[in-house]
Amino acid sequence: MTLREQREIETDVYQPAEDSQLLAEAACARLPADEDQLVLEVGTGSGYVAGRIAAETPVRVIASDLNPHAVREARGEGVETVRADLVAPFADGTFDAVAFNPPYLPTDPENEWDDWMEHALSGGEDGRAVIDPFLENVGRVLAPDGVVYLLVSSLTGVDEVVERAGEEGFSAVAVADESFPFETLTVLKLFR
Ligand SMILES: C[S@@+](CC[C@H](N)C(=O)[O-])C[C@H]1O[C@@H](n2cnc3c(N)ncnc32)[C@H](O)[C@@H]1O
After folding, report:
1. Where is the Methyltransferase domain (predicted)?
2. Which pLDDT score is estimated for 112?
């Protein structure tokens, strides 16, 4: 990797944080010990969550991200990663589970900044600008008994996300949470 590529990764790729850890732990603890299972991590960033799933479970993991620098970093970590907008390129009914730690911070449009880190952090005005289209589309790529592990924050509105998921035919249960001074992070398991 060139120095320029290394600098782009450091400034343009979301590095693992408490939300990444909570999602990785929740998913690893619940994925079946079955090497035939196929799991997608959407928005993989550094590849941390997908890498932990690959290391701690027998399932096969594929990852996606819109950010080309993230795709490069995740591939460098050994994660099979494709550049994609959410689940767009994947075939119907493909995945037994999909995990996503989305951009979820509500952001005043006046304060939006136009770079890859904004794509990693900003969920638009209500925090759900990426979560809503994800919920609309993820059902298409799930196998009939497939499940979703979705990280959400109290800043994003957990009830609103659960309601939106319900409109797409999903039931939701909170399987992990962690509280911080300014927010509580929750991992929702969505199933049909
Ligand atoms: C909060 S970061 C999470 C990164 C990593 N999964 C983790 O937990 O450390 C959100 C990630 O979603 C990616 N992302 C944002 N919009 C996306 C989209 N429409 N399709 C695919 N990935 C997207 C960002 O580039 C970023 O890597």
Report:
1. 39-101
2. 72
